[in-house]
Amino acid sequence: MNSNNLAKPAISKPLFFIGLDVHKETIAVAIAEAGRSGEVRFFGTISNDLEALEKLIRRIYKAHNVKKTELSFVYEAGPCGFVIARRMIQLGIECIVVSPSLIPKKSGDRIKTDRRDAIKLARLHRAGELEPINIPQEADECIRDLCRGRTDAVNDQRRIRSQIKAFLLRNGYKYHGKSSWNEAHLRYLRELVLPYPAHKALLEEMILASTQAAERVVRMTELIEAHYKGWDRRSWCEALMALKGVQMLTAITLVAEIGDINRFAHPRQLMAFLGLVPSEHTSSDKVRKGGITKCGNEHARWFLIESSQHYALLPKVSKELSKRQIPVSRRIKEISWNAQTRLHARYRALVAHGKCRQKAITAVAREFLGFIWALLKEHTRPGSVPARVAAQKNRAYRSYRLNPALANSEG
Questions:
Q1: What residues pair up with 369 in beta bridges, in sequence order?
Q2: Could you tell me the CA-to-CA distances from 34 to 17, 18, 41, 127 in Å, in that order?
Q3: pLDDT value of position 248
């Protein structure tokens, strides 16, 4: 399901499959020749920078007298990101990125080195045993990083507030107001008299940290809103906001995490991508299904389940939802209403059969993804206005990325 947004070269049959074990400082390189009996050997270790990588490619050209279309690179997804893959694609060389959790592993293998990992990647890539992951556009990855940064800020804020409450409870102080962390609660914390100066100083430090965390969440939200206005997939977010329970931040997060919806041929693939499909352990005629796999995108799954809780309520087009549906087509409004009626009925049926609320909401979230898939497919179908605009921007993006002279003239 790899759908790189950069232009792909016309790939002939690769003659050499090159595995890269990428680390912060170094890259271990192994080469596997085409064919079942082809040699698999360790080529060496280079520094982790693009200049050294391009020098390696020239060495391979010279040593084996091959063309760039006869090389195919592979490396594991990790903290080094997609810089190497994007540069390879710009040079016209095939390169895939694979998930470490999906790489086949022998149960008895207890030795792990950079050399062995590179050789294993090259061998498995030659055998076609590796499933590539999607390489997002740089603009999509930028918005995704902003959304994840805001989530980190929210988690920091929640952790600090929990520490303040635990500190006060441990010392015998309880706040009896109706709600926490409003002006009244903060005034109570600042005016609280503690018997020891050290405790008062500690409380002031924690209050300051909580205030700074709250301000950071506000700044991150403003950053997302500012950069969202010039994003190519803004119309996708506006279409998603036509759904009940999906406002701006949720729509931006889902679109940024999912990426190009057209790489999912069926909604079940999207459900598996978010880890919402049930696990299964079937043997012979005994079928055993467990909880969801949770093997997919955790960040998007969290936002989706939070949004799905709105469908426990009766179907209704509220004033806020009707405003969000103004710029979308009639077909998208129909999908939105069908989602409300179907998912609410599904939730009521599951609860009536004795399912707890958490399991019912998770099942609703899985079906909700099917409506999201249908809505984005409708929004991006060939011939629609948003699809034509996106195609024009995509062609301009590819032209810019693949023309260094243009990039230098504008930089």
A1: none
A2: 7, 11, 12, 9
A3: 95
Distance separating alpha carbons of residues 111 and 135, to the nearest angstrom = 30
The CA distance from 391 to 384, in Å, is 11
* Kind plus residue range of the DSSP H or E element containing 24: none
Question: Rg (Cα) of the chain, in Å, rounded?
Answer: 26
- 214-217's contacts with Cβ under 8 Å and 24+ in sequence apart are 214/157, 216/153, 216/156, 216/157, 217/150, 217/153, 217/154, 217/157
Neighbour tally for 59: CB within 10 Å: 14
- Give dist(CA 4, CA 11) in Å, integer: 14
Q: Residue ranges of the chain with pLDDT lower than 50?
A: 1-3, 5-11, 390, 393, 396-398, 400-402, 404-411
SS3 43: strand
CA dihedral 192, 193, 194, 196 (to 10 degrees): 140
248-258 helix and 298-308 helix, angle to the nearest 10 degrees: 140
Concatenating the DSSP letter of every residue in 98-122 gives E-GGGS---TT-----HHHHHHHHH
Q: How many of the other CB atoms lie within 10 Å of CB of 218?
A: 11
Q: Which helix (H) or strand (E) element contains residue 95?
A: strand 94-98
Question: Phi and psi (nearest 5°) for 295?
Answer: -95, 0
Q: Are 220 and 146 in contact (CB under 8 A)?
A: yes
* The token pair that represents 296 in the structure block: 């997919």
- Predicted confidence at residue 288, as pLDDT, reads 87
Burial class (CB in 10 A: 0-12, 13-18, 19+), 264: buried
- DSSP label of 70: G
Q: What are 42's strand-pairing partners?
A: 30
- Burial class of residue 330 (count of CB atoms within 10 Å of its CB; 0-12, 13-18, 19+): exposed
pTM, two decimals, is 0.84
Q: Is the dihedral of CA 103, 109, 111, 116 positive or negative?
A: negative
Range 176-182 contact pairs with CB under 8 angstroms and sequence separation of 24 or more? 181/210
- Report the DSSP pairing between strands 94-98 and 26-33: unpaired
pLDDT reported for residue 381: 84
For residue 395, count CB atoms less than 10 angstroms from its CB and return exposed for 0-12, middle for 13-18, buried for 19 or more: exposed
